Amino acid sequence: MNSPATDYSSYETEDFLNDKQFVAWVQHPSADQDRYWEQVQQEYPLKAYQMEEARRLVQKLSFRASTMEQAEQQQLWRAISEEAGLTRKSVPLAAQWLRKAGAAVVALMLLSLALYFYNSSRHKQFRTAYGQVATLVLPDSSVVTLNANSEIRYASDWDADEPREVWLEGEAFFEVNHLHRQGSVKPGERFVVHTGDMDVEVLGTSFNVQKRRGATQVALQTGKVRLALEGASSPVVMKPGDVVAYTPANSKLVQWQADPQLASAWRGGLLVFQDTPLAEILTYIEDTYGYQVELKDEDLAQRRLSGRFRSRNEEALLQAVAAALGISITKDPASRKLIIRN
Length: 342
Fold this sequence. Notes:
The strands form three sheets. Strands 1, 2, 3, 4, 5, 6, 7, 8, 9, 10, 11, 12 and 13 form a 13-stranded mixed β-sheet that branches. The chain has a three-stranded mixed β-sheet with strand order 15-18-17. The chain has a two-stranded antiparallel ribbon with strand order 14-16.
């Protein structure tokens, strides 16, 4: 099946509720629709939470009786929405469903929906711009350094009876607060990073996770990490210095040993290249600074570079890479394009 035609990157729960194709899938699932929405979840892993909540609400509100007048339905919805601070676009959708719902369950269903949107404000989402690096402190005092063009989502308060969970798109370095002291591991002592195709689970450790262009790479600095891979029968256990790269499109997993400091050197504004092809360097520049690269000579893609480069100043970085490889990098600010020549 081809990639989803709709861009779901900005979808919230209400948007899925207003999506006729999504609602039809929940109410009348089919093999084709199952495959389509599974692909949506793979391409937009940070939307898994919103999709699941929307699915539950559709199931709750899909009743067939209709005894309440439309005016009463809308009046009831407005009263609850004003109390819970809901957005306007929820109102027409609720009215459509309420016409199909029995009067005995209307108030309960609306209240459940209102409480959901009220509680959804407890979830935080943070995104960095191109070229921006940010540090966040999570509810358990764990520290996350978010690389440029990256997004993280997590609950503003974590329940001791549930795992500490975050959803990541992009790249981040985690310094996880170790809560486990002795005995069996309690649910709230687990820390899980979801990337869509991989779950990275730890108790307390420091590690780098990169999820870009459909692939995930994890580099472990301290502690111990267990990776639960999509479609794998058993988890992969990592030790300090291990790097694991996984591409779900072809189920390819590669594991090797490396200096764990190198994978997270970007936190200090440093890029370390070790016989790195120019093609890989340009991919990093596209993902980090938001440029589109035009390579005038494809043979240049295989030129290799080793060295340490400062990344906080993109202009200085481009000049340094160009000088080191003996190439020309011309920047077009209007189109955000980089033209690479010999």
